[in-house]
Amino acid sequence: MAHRPLRVGVLGAARVAVFGMIAPAREVDGVEVVAIASRDPDRARAFATLHGVSSVSETYEALIESPDIDLVYVATPPFNHADLAIKALRAGKPVLIEKPLAMNAAEARAVRRTAEETGLAAIEAFHWRHHGLATRALTLLPEIGPLRRLEARFDAMITQSDQEFRWNPSLGGGALMDLGCYCIHWIRTFSGIEPQVVRAKMDIEGGVDVTTEAHLACADMEATLHTSMRRPRQAVLRIEGKHGSLLIENPLAPQLGHRLTLDREGRKTAESLDAEPTFTAQLRAVAAHLKDNKPFALPPDDAEKNMAVIDAIRERSR
Fold first, then answer.
1. pLDDT band, very low/low/confident/very high, at 1 (cuts 50, 70, 90)
2. Residue 4 pLDDT > 90, yes or no?
3. What structural domains does the chain harbor?
4. Contact (CB, 8 A) for 66 and 73
5. Pairing of strands 208-218, 95-97
6. Above 60 in pLDDT, residue 23?
7. 286: how many CB neighbours lie within 10 A of its CB?
């Protein structure tokens, strides 16, 4: 007997919902987006018509309570991620939550604890981790010897407007929350260490950080991150070891073009991998975890630990 499709309900008629869920669901067998809800029901209806979603819920709560939903995908601005995730978990629904999962570590901890209490999954959508590039880069770490330094950068030009949540502090905006969270995740993933923030600097404009720089200590390693909403798009991670280095160009979305360069004692080799897009790979992993109990790449407390670094950077920048 064929398995019933994993029925997904989307909270938030945002652009990220298209490439983060609508498009991947068309590529992953056994996953179907069946409902959408937005703060503006008219916007939800327009989104549903455009993208072929069969049902529109008038409120977030109506979608969360629907018996026809197996997974809730939270694609709203960060300010209500934790609240919506907790409501979904308490309604018996696992959740896939766009990054950052919460506004701070305390909120992320509350989500994790609710997930533990309900026995359901609460997953942060760090899609980059599911691409073959991430796996390949991790396997190359022994080639460069004990790690000494990591440098992470993610910049993007974010146009300032009243409709752009990333320029709104009350909605969870700012370079660190939207872009820098990836830098932190790269550093944590490849160092294998929960870093301590040594010093940090934020350039604030309109209540949000336009640019953030931070220096971190990871046991015997050091790390730096730079993120800006005022610079041309660039996502790069450099990892230096005792015997060489790895340069990962575009670890964020390798499907848009990337290069992995290994420099071992002056001998350089470069490669790229032919693998499915990060969002498709992520949804495939989520579906396998929920339907077949397959292990998931990110541990349950991963979001909480990532948010703890964000909290510490904010504190140090003061």
1. very low
2. no
3. 6-125 (3.40.50.720), 130-277+306-317 (3.30.360.10)
4. no
5. unpaired
6. yes
7. 25
Residue 262 host element (H or E): strand 259-264
Name the catalytic one among 99, 201, 268, 305: 99
Give the number of residues written for the chain: 318
Query: How would you class 65 by CB atoms within 10 Å of its CB: exposed for 0-12, middle for 13-18, buried for 19 or more?
Result: middle
Residue labelled with tokens 């499907």: 255
Helix (H, G, I), strand (E, B) or coil at 209: strand
Measure the CA–CA gap between 82 and 108, rounded to whole angstroms. Answer: 7
Structure tokens at 247: 């340069």
Residue 104 tokens read as 């701070």
| The dihedral formed by the CA atoms of 7, 133, 81 and 284, expressed in degrees to the nearest 10 | 10
Residue bearing tokens 């609710």: 114
Residue pair 238/164 in contact (Cβ under 8 Å)? The answer is no
What lies within 8 Å, CB to CB, of 243 at 6+ separation is 143, 144, 145, 264, 265
Work out whether the CA dihedral 221, 241, 179, 45 comes out positive or negative: negative
Question: Is 99 a catalytic site residue?
Answer: yes
pLDDT band at 188 (very low <50, low <70, confident <90, very high): very high
Name the DSSP letter for residue 252: S
Q: Count Cβ atoms below 10 Å from residue 117 Cβ, excluding itself.
A: 10
pLDDT at residue 2 tops 80: no
How many angstroms from the chain centroid is the CA of residue 217?
A: 23
Q: Give strand pairing partners of 149.
A: 222, 240
314: Cβ–Cβ under 8 A, 6 or more apart, which residues?
A: 176, 200, 202
Could you give phi then psi for residue 294, rounded to 5 degrees?
Answer: -75, 145
Query: What is the gyration radius of the CA atoms in the chain, in angstroms?
Result: 19
CA-CA-CA-CA torsion sign (47, 71, 118, 284): negative
Q: Does the structure show a pLDDT above 90 at 75?
A: yes
* 197/184 Cα distance (integer angstroms): 11
Which tokens go with 9? 């309900």
